[in-house]
Amino acid sequence: MHPWIAQRTTTFDASGIRKVFDLAANLKDPINLSIGQPDFDVPESVQQAAVEAIESGKNAYSPTQGIAPLREAIKADLDQRYAHPDREVFISSGTSGGLMLSMMSMINPGDEVIYLDPFFVMYPALLKMAGGVAVPIDSYPDFQVDPDKIAAAITPKTKMILLNTPANPTGVTATVEQIEAVAKLAAKHNIALVSDEIYSHFHYDTPFVSAAQFNPDAIVIDGFSKSHAMTGWRVGYVHGPQEVIATMLKIQQYSFVCSPQPAQWGALKALEVDLSSHIDDYRQKRDLICDLLADRFEFTRPGGAFYLFAKAPGNDGGEAFVKRAIEQGVLIIPGKIFSDKDTHFRISFAAADETLRQGAEVLNRLADEG
What we know:
Radius of gyration: 20 Å
Number of strands: 13
Number of helices: 12
CATH topology of the largest domain: Aspartate Aminotransferase, domain 2
Strand order of the largest sheet: 2-8-7-6-5-3-4
CATH class of the largest domain: Alpha Beta
Order of helices and strands: HEHHEHEHEHEHEEEHHHEEHEEEH
């Protein structure tokens, strides 16, 4: 290792998703079921709002906490929904930025953080950067949130519970009862509850419910990347107790500085966009991919997001099956990137229906071949 490289960087690897793309680099026209972003474009009105911001000279740094109109609009909605006396909001550089600021603001070396396995790839890496100790909870085979398992994992060193629903990579949505139980458990033990709600709009069978409804101190991370296809714009937001938010802002000031100002004006317009047609489309895509794969693959039907986490057929494991799929031109992601287990693979159904059909045909054929 180069003598200049910090020791903390050796505690985690680069995202394994990159390795999948390296394997697929020579494919001319792959059937891509790997991308974690919507296949629709940023709404035209949002694009135009950003263009107008650029053309009108709104190109400098914004305040670290974000432009006032966007913050005020989000805050007004939060006040109406929760009426918490101690809840503030700021605009982060994407939800990934919000996650990093959460860890850096609250996690001391040795603090334990509980989250489900499978998990979003950033969770363990960010924890290790902050010196925290990951406490993954095995949620196989159905990937449900089990409040009793979480309660059993709490120790005097537990500092945070990370809740992600709808979940990446499984698409599974926690029930209202599960969310309430975890929220109240965190409050009972004075543990920080960070609720990663980036897929909150993609909730297909029941209304979305936030952990903040049951815990006035919940720290919520959300944004516009998935809901409005604005993944490259880097506009997220975080809300929670004022003192925690102020600390996160202090770190943002010395790191990300602010979210890009023109993108924030686009996000302000995004608050007015009706997403119901897109959500209906993705509900149909969920139904389509589930119907196409149900006869040959084991999976928990996703209630949200745009992922399906299926068990690989046979005994070779998820990574081996993914390699076979890529050799046949289908890009999917091995489950071990999101888990301590190598049994599953992730499909993104954020793709055209014909692409889903083509991909399912290949995957079913590989399953039949054993």
